[in-house]
Amino acid sequence: MADEMRFKPLVNATFLPRWTGRVVRLPCEIISREGDTVKVKACDGGEINVNLIKGTEIEGKFALFTGPAVGDSEVTMLEYERLPDESNLPSRNSAIEFFHDERFSSATGYAISSAGDLTSASV
């Protein structure tokens, strides 16, 4: 799996498909839970399903999930971190968009040539 990489980009629903098969970090708001799957709202408002590790207890309203991107709107959890209840997702989204902006992505390590192809992983 892509977990070999130290670089784990922050993503929103828009940028998640670029990283299919790679480990990403997804800051989000919890919408609902059904069994070991949670539906979340990413920083840009898009909905994503996160497959939890069996028995994971989710606390609070906001979370940061780390795990491989599976397709266009799914992440499989490797790690979970509770974010503060006063988290500002629009501010986080601005940072995510900056890092993915083509003008800066080479410097930030987020440059990719095509979906799933990382050209700068030295971050």
Automatic annotation (TrEMBL):
Keywords: Nucleus
Gene Ontology MF terms in the entry: DNA binding
Gene3D superfamilies attached to this UniProt entry: Nucleic acid-binding proteins
InterPro entries in the cross-refs: NA-bd_OB-fold, Rfa2
Major location (coarse): nucleus
Pfam family, one: Rep_fac-A_3
Any one Gene Ontology BP term: DNA replication
Gene Ontology annotations for the cellular component aspect, listed alphabetically: nuclear lumen
Compartmental location: Nucleus
Family membership noted in the UniProt record: Belongs to the replication factor A protein 3 family.
Protein name per the record: Uncharacterized protein
